[in-house]
Design goal:
By secondary structure, this protein is α/β, with parallel strands linked by helices. It folds into two domains: about 1-205, Rossmann fold; about 225-430, Rossmann fold. Helix content is about 35%, strand content about 15%. It is built from twelve helices and 14 strands. The protein has a nine-stranded mixed β-sheet, with helices on both faces. The radius of gyration is 23 Å and the shape is globular.
Length: about 425
């Protein structure tokens, strides 16, 4: 483990490709450390917004962007050719799954192909996008070498350092240790020096593969444990036992226990996706990732469980699901953020639509559904007010606004998937 040097590192010229939830905070951190940063994204709107000194991510204030741009050391562009003028390039592009739950490296490889012609000798390239072991040292390396005519580890340096961004926590990056693995010892040394300027501690591992495997372990650990409490939620409910009470009691044990909490399913770009990268890769080695696949089955079944609880709550009131008006509270996958990627609310919405229900949503952080890879059909739908005119109201995300809302006088059935409601109506149900 290598701590930050006591004296500031010399300013570094960095290009960050992909200015989303990972890339933008990273760009701001490098600018604050004294570096010169070129942010590159295929979406021209992001460049325009940054040029206006504004933020397009709710959890990052515009003042942070304004401060970075005001230094004269942070600019944004769609031109990847500008990466040819920097010392280091960090790739932060999406790594989704295909419809068949296979890894989709198209964004990584397209970035590598576009970057290769402008690579310069001595340049450092770091991949931060979560992926399976071997992506950096094999797939990305081959792409960069083929397009540049140079050799990784000799002419340019290559490393992997998994992102550990925590949406909603704007200061997280600069207080979380950074894992780094390099293709060669010199690649590792260069990458360690790069990140030591912006993080409190750099944790070196033996290879790019080990760094990629570390990120997968972190997310698989969460996926498996969330699946465990989701399964226990259903079992304990059948026994008349409150899973939330049990978790709170178990959390008083000062050793050997870490609380995880059930919900309507998994969301975000990490936990629902990343474990399947390893289960897919494991097959290449004749292995089956049984825990990972079982956890995936349990977690992806949760939206159906929620819909069954909605149907039961309506049935108690003599109403069928078909034709009932239902309000979903929370489109973001996580409280107090505007990130709706892979949100389980969309799966619940789809299932309710298929059952003939009339569905609306409310989210103070997502006033309108934006186009996305997995929910384009909902694009343009707008958030509606929280009113007691619906047959059922379903708490899908535990935003602070919902925790503070007084539902005690509501006549609608309130189905709570997050244990978020304290002032509850008589028709209160857990899911």
């Amino acid at each position: 483990m290598i701590p930050n040097p006591s004296t500031p590192a010399a300013p570094t010229r960095v290009a960050i490709i992909g200015l989303g939830y990972v890339g933008l905070p990273l760009a701001l951190a490098f600018t604050r450390s004294g570096g010169t940063v070129i942010g590159i994204d295929t979406d021209p709107e992001k460049s325009r917004i940054i040029g206006r000194c504004e933020s397009y991510l709710r959890h990052i204030p515009s003042s942070s962007v304004r401060d970075a741009v005001a230094t004269g050391r942070f600019t944004a562009t769609t031109d990847i050719g500008q990466a040819g003028s920097v010392d280091a390039v960090i790739i932060c592009v999406p790594t989704p799954l295909t419809a068949q739950h296979a890894p989709d490296l198209s964004y990584v490889l397209a970035t590598g192909a576009a970057l290769a012609p402008v690579l310069c000798k001595g340049m450092l390239v770091v991949l931060e996008s979560t992926t399976y072991p071997g992506t950096t040292a094999v797939d990305l390396r081959q792409c960069l070498e083929a397009g540049s005519g140079m050799a990784a580890g000799r002419d340019f340096h290559l490393a992997f350092s998994p992102e550990r961004e925590d949406p909603g926590n704007v200061t997280s990056l600069e207080r979380i240790p950074k894992v780094v693995g390099g293709l060669t010892p010199e690649c590792l040394r260069r990458a360690t020096a790069l990140y030591a300027a912006v993080v409190p501690k750099v944790v070196e591992v033996s290879s790019c593969d080990a760094a990629e495997a570390t990120k997968l372990l972190e997310n698989i650990f969460r996926s498996v444990n969330i699946a465990l409490v989701n399964e226990l939620k259903v079992i304990y409910a059948a026994m008349g036992i409150d899973i939330w009470e049990v978790i709170a009691a178990a959390s008083t044990k000062p050793f050997g226990f870490m609380p995880f909490f059930p919900g309507p399913g998994l969301g975000g770009h990490c936990i629902p996706i990343d474990p399947f990268y390893l289960s897919w890769k494991a097959k290449e080695f004749g292995q089956t990732a049984r825990f990972i696949e079982l956890a995936g089955e349990i977690n992806t079944a949760m939206p159906r469980h929620v819909v069954s609880r909605i149907a039961a709550a309506l049935n108690d009131r003599g109403r069928p699901l078909r034709g009932s008006e239902i309000l979903l509270l929370g489109l973001a996958y996580k409280k107090n953020v505007d990130d709706d990627r892979e949100s389980p609310t969309y799966a619940i919405w789809d299932l309710l639509n298929a059952s003939g229900a009339i569905v609306s949503y409310h989210d103070p952080h997502v006033p309108e559904v934006r186009p996305g890879r997995t929910h384009a059909r909902f694009a343009g739908t707008r958030s509606v007010p929280v009113e007691d005119r619906f047959d059922a109201i379903v708490v899908c995300t535990d935003h602070d606004e919902y925790r503070e809302q007084d539902f005690s006088s509501f006549r609608a059935a309130v189905i709570d998937t997050r244990n978020a409601i304290s002032r509850r109506p008589s028709g209160y149900y857990r899911a």
